[in-house]
């Protein structure tokens, strides 16, 4: 999908904002998000889906309140997986009636908060969770609207750490036990069965696994109706991949995904919901960093930048490939030496890219790590006592700091000295 990070007058810009000027104003490293890109991704996806579908943005991809509010204004709902995400979605103005609660380990306190808010539905992932939800709902004098997340035993053909639809993963209720689970749910007075939920993984670049999963779920919906359950909703999950590589075969376009879903589900008689995260946020964000040193080793040249694996963990955790560009546009035909792009963290895996051709760079130059808007800032930590970096949202020519940089004082203030050590 198109994004709004382009060179203008020789400098990389976020929409109309020059990133060199932004770096001077906020310091490096920083995350930068583009409103126009978020909006475009949401609208293209919404336009590809059957009318009336609910798009419950997967908050885990990027939970910044300003990002959530941008999406809320477009009519987005939210897929949340914790009490914290629920609180953030509500605080950003996403109506409770558009919030679905997913995740394998919901606590009773989280269930109470969600029932109190009056969310759209719970996607329940196990029989013990169903029993707990029933108990909580009954104690509150409510009925919880639920879909059971069914594990269709389909291989999403993505990275093993984000493949969730196979029988051996922890997610969902096994397909073969689905009918008995629904039969049991129907006996619980605090539970109202409304639908079925399926989510098979993330960064899926092939439509076939989706089609296989939705087809299997369609057969299940027919059996469940034959068993007497009122199934009116299908939650299709998230997981559609995005292009990270400019040179590999691109994942299917959202319109192709939408056309496939429309075709496969047309006779299901269900209102559809979707939980896209990466698709909306990944290419709407970048991480801007400054080169600290260019270190010439025997075998390699290391570009040591001021962002580290604690700021963006995807390369270290999933061997993820992120495009890296210089903020100053290189002259056409200029040399592209190979660099290992690394951070300052004391781990060999603090490596953003190996043997990457980049323009000649020197200390003080700025680089941007692209496609960092999803699973970037949300997965950051403060390892090596590195304060969390700020997040900036751009809209046209305007920008605002939507999460300030942490200071050393902030880090120190998080800890407490027990009595026996103080004084
Ligand atoms: N719904 C459920 C139930 C999920 O577990 C997820 C992602 C989504 C929706 C959103 O999936 P998406 O549309 O973003 O693919 N940290 C990893 C990705 C983990 C995905 C976890 N679940 C990464 O950086 O690649």
User: What fraction of the residues are assigned to beta strands by DSSP?
Assistant: 15-25%
What small molecules are bound in this structure?
ligand LLP
Fraction of residues in H or I helices: 25-40%
**Low-pLDDT segments, ≥5 res:** none
Structural class: alpha/beta
Instruction: Return the average pLDDT rounded to an integer.
Output: 96
Categorize the overall geometry: globular
State the end-to-end CA separation: 58 Å
Task: Work out the helix count.
Answer: 12
Give the oligomeric state of the chains in this entry, treating copies of one chain as homo and distinct chains as hetero.
Answer: single chain
Q: Radius of gyration, rounded?
A: 23 Å
The overall strand count is 21
Keywords for this entry:
21 strands; 8-stranded parallel barrel; globular; 12 helices; alpha/beta; 423 residues; single chain
Explain what this protein looks like in three dimensions.
The structure is a single chain. The chain has 423 residues and is an alpha/beta fold. Helices cover 28% and strands 24% of the residues. It contains 12 helices and 21 strands. Strands 4, 14, 15, 16, 17, 18, 19, 20 and 21 form a 9-stranded mixed beta sheet that branches. The chain is globular, with a radius of gyration of 23 Å. The termini are far apart. The model has no long low-confidence stretch (mean pLDDT 96). The structure holds ligand LLP.
């Amino acid at each position: 999908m198109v994004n709004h990070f382009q060179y203008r007058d020789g400098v990389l810009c976020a929409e109309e904002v020059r990133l060199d000027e932004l770096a001077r104003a906020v310091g490096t490293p920083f995350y930068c998000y583009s409103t126009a890109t978020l909006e475009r991704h949401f609208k293209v996806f919404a336009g590809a889906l059957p009318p009336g579908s609910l798009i419950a943005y997967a908050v885990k991809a990027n939970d910044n309140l300003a990002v959530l509010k941008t999406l809320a204004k477009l009519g987005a709902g939210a897929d949340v997986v914790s009490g914290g995400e629920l609180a953030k979605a509500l605080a950003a103005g996403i109506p409770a009636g558009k919030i679905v609660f997913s995740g394998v380990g919901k606590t009773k306190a989280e269930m109470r908060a969600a029932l109190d808010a009056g969310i759209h539905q719970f996607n329940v992932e196990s029989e013990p969770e169903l029993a707990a939800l029933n108990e909580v709902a009954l104690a509150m004098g409510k009925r919880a609207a639920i879909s059971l997340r069914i594990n269709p035993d389909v291989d999403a053909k993505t990275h093993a750490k984000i493949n969730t639809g196979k029988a051996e993963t922890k997610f969902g209720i096994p397909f073969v036990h689905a009918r008995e689970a629904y039969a049991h749910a129907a006996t619980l007075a605090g539970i109202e069965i409304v639908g079925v939920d399926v989510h098979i993984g993330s960064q899926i670049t092939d439509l076939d696994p989706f089609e296989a999963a939705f087809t299997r779920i369609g057969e299940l919906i027919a059996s469940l109706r034959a068993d007497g359950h009122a199934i009116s909703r299908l939650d299709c999950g998230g997981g559609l991949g995005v292009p990270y590589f400019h040179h590999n075969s691109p994942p299917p376009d959202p319109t192709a995904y939408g056309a496939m879903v429309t075709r496969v589900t047309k006779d299901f008689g269900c209102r559809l919901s979707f939980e896209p995260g990466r698709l909306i946020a990944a290419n709407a964000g970048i991480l801007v960093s400054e080169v600290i040193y260019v270190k010439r080793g025997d075998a390699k040249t290391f570009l040591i930048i001021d962002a580290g694996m604690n700021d963006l963990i995807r390369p270290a955790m999933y061997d993820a490939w992120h495009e890296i560009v210089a903020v100053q546009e290189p002259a056409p035909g200029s040399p592209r030496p190979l660099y290992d792009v690394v951070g300052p963290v004391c781990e060999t895996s603090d490596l953003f890219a190996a043997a990457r051709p980049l323009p000649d760079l020197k200390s003080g130059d700025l680089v941007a790590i692209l496609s960092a808007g999803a699973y970037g800032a949300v997965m950051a930590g403060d390892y090596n006592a590195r304060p969390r970096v700020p997040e900036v949202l751009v809209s046209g020519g305007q920008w605002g700091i939507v999460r300030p940089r942490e200071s050393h004082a902030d880090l120190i203030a998080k800890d407490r000295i027990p009595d026996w050590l103080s004084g």
